[in-house]
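User: Round two. Same drill as before: sequence, then structure, for each protein.

Assistant: Same drill it is. First protein:
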Amino acid sequence: MTPRIKNPFKSIPDGLKAMMAVEASIAASGLEHSLLELVKMRASQINGCAYCIHMHATDARSHGETEMRLYMLNAWRESPLYTDRERAALAWTEALTHVADTGAPDADYALVSAQFSEEEQVQLTLLIGSINLWNRLQIGLRAVHPVDAARAAA
C-alpha cells in the first residue's frame, strides 16, 4: 500500500493540534486506559483501519493488556474475558460506529447508562467519534502501519 499523502498533518498543524486536544481530554477523563484501548481497537476493527489496530494493540500490550483479550476482541459477545462495563462500552462502540444502520439503539444506551456516569457517557461517546475520525483519516489517506523488518522479510 502506498500512502496518498506522506505526512497529512504537516499541512494542517491547527487541525492536528485540535485532534490532540480532544485526545488529551479523553485521556484525562478518568476512563480506564484498558477500556479506551479496547474501544479504539474495536472501532478500528469494524472500520478496517490497520494503522489504528496496530497502534492501539501495541499501546494496549505496553500497558499490560493480555494477548488473549486482544485476540478475542472481535468476538467479545461470546467471550467471558470482558467485564460488564467493557461490554457496555463495546456495544456502544459498535452502535455508534455503525450509526447509519443502528440509529444508536435504546438497548445499547441502557447498557451504557447502567455502567457509566453521565460525564463518562459523554467522554465515551466523544472517544468513539474521535477514533472513527482517526480511522477515516488513516484509511482515506492510506496510512501504512509500521512493519517489523524481520517479519517483513519473511
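Second protein:
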Amino acid sequence: MTKPPSRIDQRKAELRKEIIDTAFDCFAEKGYHATGIADIATRLRIGHGTFYRYFANKRDIIDHVIDEVSGRIFGALADDMEPESASTIEEYATLIDRISDSLNRVLLDDPRTAHLLLFHATGIDDELTERVYGLVDATEILMTRYLDHGVRVGYLRADIDTANTAKAALGMIVAGLVAGMRTPDPATMSVYSHAVRRLFIDGVRAAAR
C-alpha cells in the first residue's frame, strides 16, 4: 500500500508548483532574458536558496513551464475527441467546435500561454526552439489525423492535401491568437472563430451525393 504524502511533502509539491506558476507569470510579462531569479523569488517572498533547492537555474525552470503548457494543450483534447468519433460532416463540424472551444479556453483564457509560445520561447536557445517546433509538429500531426480519417470515411474531399491543410488550419489558429492578444474581446474572438470554422468546414467537406 502506497504511503500517503506527508504534510511536508505536500508543501514541497505546492511550493514547486508555485515557483513554476510565478516563473510563468514573469516570463510572459517581462520575457525570459529580462527575468531574473530574484524577480521570481521576490514575488514569491522566498530566498534564492529556496529556489535552487527545487530548480538548477532559470533555464531549468522554463523547461518545466513548457511541460505544463504542453500538458494543458493536449489535455484539452479529451479521449472522446478522437478522430474516429466522427463519421459524418455534421459530427466532424461539432467535433471541431468542441476542440476549438477547448483550445480557446487554454490559449485565450490564460494569455501567458500564447505570449510565451509565440514571442518568448523561441528566442532563448536552439534546444528550446526545437521543443516549441516539436509542439507545433505534434499539433499538425494530430490535425492531419482528423483530416485523414474524414477522407477515408468519405465526408471530406478525397483530393485534400491533408498535411498542408493542417498547416493552414494551424496558421489560422495562430492568427486568431495574435488578434486575441491585441484585442482581448471575447465577442470579437467568437466572431473570428466562427468565420474560421465555417471557412474550414466548407473548404474540406465532400460534395453531397
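The mean pLDDT is 85.

User: Perfect.
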